[in-house]
Automatic annotation (TrEMBL):
GO terms for cellular component: anaphase-promoting complex. Residues 13-62 are annotated as: Disordered. PANTHER family: CELL DIVISION CYCLE 20 CDC20 FIZZY -RELATED. This is Anaphase-promoting complex subunit 4 WD40 domain-containing protein. The keyword Metal-binding does not apply. It comes from the Eukaryota. GO terms for molecular function: anaphase-promoting complex binding; ubiquitin ligase activator activity. It comes from Polytomella parva. Residues 13-46 have a biased composition (Basic and acidic residues). Residues 47-62 have a biased composition (Polar residues). One of its GO terms (biological process) is positive regulation of anaphase-promoting complex-dependent catabolic process. Keywords: Repeat, WD repeat.
Amino acid sequence: EEEIKQKVEEEIKRKEEEEIKRQKDEEMRRKKEEETKQKEEEEKVRSSVQPRSNTPGGGTSSAVFTPITCTESICKYMVKAGGCCYRYGLDINKYNVLAVAYDQYSVYLYSEANKTEEKLCTCQYYVYCLAWNQQGTLLAIGGGHNSNTNNTIQVWDIPNRKITKRLKINDINQTCYCLDWKGDTITAGTDQYIYQWNINDQDNDQDTQGNKTLLPRNT
């Protein structure tokens, strides 16, 4: 009787161990599937934000980006960014796609991976600053006012190549010199004010938003 009892207990223990192992194997399988799915989605995003050539026949041109032989590890590319380099902004995202303001009104994208450049847009104002969000999919563009247009911050959805938001700066005489992201919040610095918007706020568009100024400068 003791022997039978012992065998039963051993069988129960064996089945429990098998079940534990099965659960662990299943958990590992699910984890690998999730990791694979995440990598595939990340690769799709990486591919979607890469520049698409504007030049005939594809490829890159020397109009904006000039690769140079590096003698120091700190420099990889020389970027021509308009007449006064210090005036025009640039930013690079997590996928190493460089956005640069060029020729005052234009914004270009450049990828080191595929050596392709793309003219993203031509604005109606001087472009002084650019900023990618943390995900590397949205690009904010800001600059100087122009009497022929509303003064706005453009937010581009780069994978779909379209403007997803226009954030109005109420005073057309203000020039945006810097932009920064924190999650879904964009902060812009102008001549006299700091502006802040949440891009998920439906009221934040050029037609309906109120004055979103913070920290006015003492004059």
